């Protein structure tokens, strides 16, 4: 059998091609992972910066509200709530029940009713 010198055979060429392709894939994958890592770090930094800005804005709003409340005159004291008007109909019904039970006479019922109605 005659061997060629200087050039690899078909199997050698295929092996070399497989090594080159594998190396290229590994390098390419590493570059993609590195790029993704940098992009993720950039996004995290932007999110952190946004959180810091929101916290500063909230602090400014809180400070402005506190200043307004300190500068505003105190509210006038609340007026006392009007006394609840007695339910006239309920009281009249109660007087009628008392009269029906015999607890009030006609004169007492009439006087209480006149007082209730004014």
**Helix proportion:** over 70%
Counted up, domains total: 2
Order of helices and strands: HHH
User: Structural class, please?
Assistant: mainly alpha
SSE layout and pairing:
Elements lengths: L9 H62 L16 H13 L5 H12 L1
Report on the structure:
By secondary structure, this protein is mainly α. 74% of the residues lie in helices and 0% in strands. The protein has two domains: 8-70; 86-118. α2 (88-100) runs antiparallel to α3 (106-117). The protein is elongated and about 145 Å long.
Q: Keywords, please?
A:
118 residues; mainly alpha; 3 helices
Entry summary:
With 118 residues, the protein is mainly α. It contains three helices and no strands.
């Amino acid at each position: 059998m005659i061997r060629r010198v200087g050039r690899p055979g078909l199997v050698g060429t295929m092996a070399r091609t497989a090594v080159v392709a594998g190396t290229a894939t590994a390098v390419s994958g590493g570059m993609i992972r590195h790029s993704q890592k940098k992009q993720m770090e950039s996004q995290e930094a932007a999110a952190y910066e946004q959180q810091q800005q929101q916290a500063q804005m909230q602090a400014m709003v809180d400070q402005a509200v506190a200043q307004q409340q300190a500068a505003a005159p105190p509210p006038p004291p609340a007026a006392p709530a009007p006394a609840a008007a007695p339910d006239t109909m309920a009281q009249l019904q109660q007087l009628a029940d008392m009269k029906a039970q015999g607890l009030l006479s006609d004169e007492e019922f009439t006087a209480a009713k006149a007082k209730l109605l004014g």
